[in-house]
Amino acid sequence: MQSERERRFPGPRRGQLLFAVALLFFAVLLLSQTPGQTRWVAKTDFFAQPRFWPAVGLIAMAAFGALHLYLLPWRRLRRDDRAEARKWAAVVEYAAWFMGYVFAVPVIGYLPSTLVFVPLLARRLGYRSGQMMLAAVLFGLATVVVFKSFLSVKIPGGMIYEYLPAAIRTFFILNF
Amino acid sequence: MDTLLSSLEILARWDVILALVVGSVGGVLIGAIPGVGPAVAIAILLPATFSMDPIVGLTVLLGIYGSSMYGGAIPAVLINTPGTAVNALTTYDGFPMTARGEPRRALSLAYSSSFFGGIFSVICLMAFAPVLAKVAPMFGSREIFLAALLGIILVIVAHRGQSLIAGALAGFGIFIQTIGLEPVKYSKRFTFDQAFLSSGIDLIVVVLGLFALSQAFLLLTSDDEKIRTTKLRGGLFQGFRELMRHPRVAGVSASFGVVMGMIPGVGEFTAQFLSYTYAQKTSKRPQDFGHGSSEGLIAAETSNNAVPAAAMVPLLALGIPGEALTAMMLSVFYVHNVVPGPGLFQNSMDFIMALYLALLILNVLVVVFLLVATRPLIQVVKIPNRFLGLCVLTLSFVGVYSLRNSATDCIIAAVFGIIGYILKRLSLPIVPIILGMVLGNIMEVKLRAGMARVKEPFDFIDRPVAMILFLAIIAVLAIHFRHVLQDRKSLKEAEWQSKHRSTRFGALLFRRKGSLSRARGRKVKARHSTSYRRSTERD
């Protein structure tokens, strides 16, 4: 049965303890690195020391984080905490998809990599119908045309464009 | 009058007009799609606006900020899902109206209330601008430091029930902005001898990670829902007539929006809460609130739309953003070497008036667009969640990569995306990290400058504005601690009331043993008292 303290906690129970412990650990670890990673400058006011503001941030993080952990209504990890951690880890796959796209753009170009990435990820998400695939391709094309061709956003042309005939090479580098 | 004319001159350009149209229509569309919201859109579009003129770039972003709440009312009223977070209160009275067959009335009332809130706040601030221009120069380094400190304290205490974790996350934000080369002594801070950390962590990379990528991850891992929308028939003008029957609720709610918008760290939610509570307490039919009350809908929509214009006040007058969206806009100013603060009010009043006029025109454009295009616009709520996540992920790439063409920035953004995803899953606040970064930087610079002329601690607050800000900080902290003590007391009382004996078998046996031994004790005591009772009667 839920206690009054648990009932009043804003947010779900799963993962809270894990996050609070990780945050405190991270804060204490960084705080322990402060003397080595920052400098104390002689003949300089206390508030103007390069060490002052990183220490303020980390002390706030550690102190508030410790109090948050102390006042959490739970003290033990349960099965749903582990399931939540697995959910967090599952997101790494999409972060990897994103990084794959990032590394592909300078090599094969913005337009080709977008036209490959968007339908491929749509397929991975479970969309199989021709309508959704067409929507994915059109969305990719529209993104490139709006941002690179019209708004001239700074995205470099792909290395692969160097192999294009001279007549269309510059056009592709500038617009796609 | 001259200022007004020169500000109109600033706006009378084809690119500004185009920015107004794109911003307003885009904002409505983004607001109407649940799960995207203005923060994601502004984060993605931010780098694209760097190549534009400041007024053009800011008009696009202001357009999205100001019009997204109009669009957010559509799914809130029709499918009980707020398009943006601040439309949550709209569902309370908007959806019950739809459920009883009045979707047209609810939408029309939401649009007219939003329009009134938007116009009211802009007119208030245009009238208030000359006063601000006089007050703003009274803010020196110490005052700006204290205002930023007040802002960060307000952000922390505004997350009631989560203020400790909000404080920890604000500390994290303050720490992140210190990474890299310190600009005065040129010493490295927390770079771990890594070249990519020497230039620091860019605010926009963090914003894109925490808002856009995290939202993409959240949508990609969610399920697609089947959404059924209600068909709309007839015109949408009746709301204006109905709004005119409640001038008191509309006026007070818009005033709450203006005042709360101007205070850093407070924003839409507090304004809505105060307006809704006021409307309910003063209503002749308080029992209707939450069941389709027109006054409730007016209070919610008027107050949230009065905030965007007011939120620009601390940003423009002091250079202090009060929330995540204005913090993002601050970077547009910096990129164009326009430094918001007291100087801007003194030297570029026409620029500020132009921004306010843009907001005024924007509100008119949005209402006209919505009156014409609501019916086709309803279809955007049907976009599947995971496909939407895919779109946000693809667009986030443009935002991060176009900044410096750096894959390292993308890795940092992805890491912050995962952090943001975890925070969203746990319902923990993200805004304190962003405001910690922005306000931490302001506090560092201003404290260093302010302390240069301070000999004794009291010198820091010896000027009137500094003293007022200092007293405001003390008052906010005192009120917060009072609330904390009250919460603790009510928790203890609730725990005491709900306390019950253990139902475990061991505990039952223990209690049985206790009660048997007590009963036996009573029996023995009674026997002894009869055996040794002395007679008080005298022979």
Keywords:
heterodimer; A: 176 residues; 70% helix; B: 539 residues; 2 domains; 2 strands; 1% strand; globular
Tally of strands of chain B: 2
Count of alpha/pi helices of chain A? 7
In total, the number of domains of chain B comes to 2
**Contiguous uncertain segments of 5+ residues of chain B:** none
Average pLDDT number of chain B: 84
User: Strand tally of chain A, please?
Assistant: 0
The global form of chain B is: globular
How would you classify the helix and strand content of chain B by structural class? mainly alpha
Give the % helix of chain B.
over 70%
Largest sheet of chain A: none
Share of β-strand residues of chain A = under 5%
Helical content of chain A stands at 55-70%
Describe the structure in your own words.
The complex is a heterodimer of chains A (176) and B (539). Chain A is mainly α and 176 residues long. Chain A has seven helices and no strands. Helices cover 70% and strands 0% of the residues of chain A. The model of chain A has no long low-confidence stretch (mean pLDDT 90). With 539 residues, chain B is an all-alpha fold. Chain B folds into two domains: 2-453, no CATH class; 459-497. Chain B is 74% helix and 1% strand. Chain B has a two-stranded antiparallel sheet with strand order 1-2. In chain B, strand 1 (180-181) and strand 2 (188-189) form a beta hairpin.
